[in-house]
Amino acid sequence: MDNASAVNGLQSNETGTSPKLTPAEAEALIPPPTRAKRGFAVLSPEKKREIASMGGKAAHEHGRAHRFTSEEARAAGKKRHQLRMLAVAAAKATDGSAADTAVGQDAPPASGVAGNGAKR
Predict the structure, then answer these.
(1) For 1-117, where are the E strands, in sequence order?
(2) Which residues, in sequence order, are CB contacts of 12 under 8 Å at separation 6+?
(3) What average pLDDT does this structure show over 77-82?
């Protein structure tokens, strides 16, 4: 085996004319086919932003989108906090450990909203 084939890790056959490769090695030498960009991948970031903006405006016009007010966001956060406290209390009741609750937090009342807070 000559130095060039030894460096490349290839073994020559008896005649020394062509390298002997396993099928896996031969497949590794073939470059993967290049794929042309399609759809939004072809567009510039500015054009993508423009199209997304038009979609957002259309959703608001048709009443399919909602922008939260600060009062709605506050109510949603409060509801999430209540649900989290219920989950902590349930875990505490089943495990008997107080490690899940922070110092100074009271357990939530037994009555409350159960579930993940999704509207039905």
Answers:
(1) 11-12, 19-20
(2) 1, 2, 5, 18, 19, 20
(3) 95
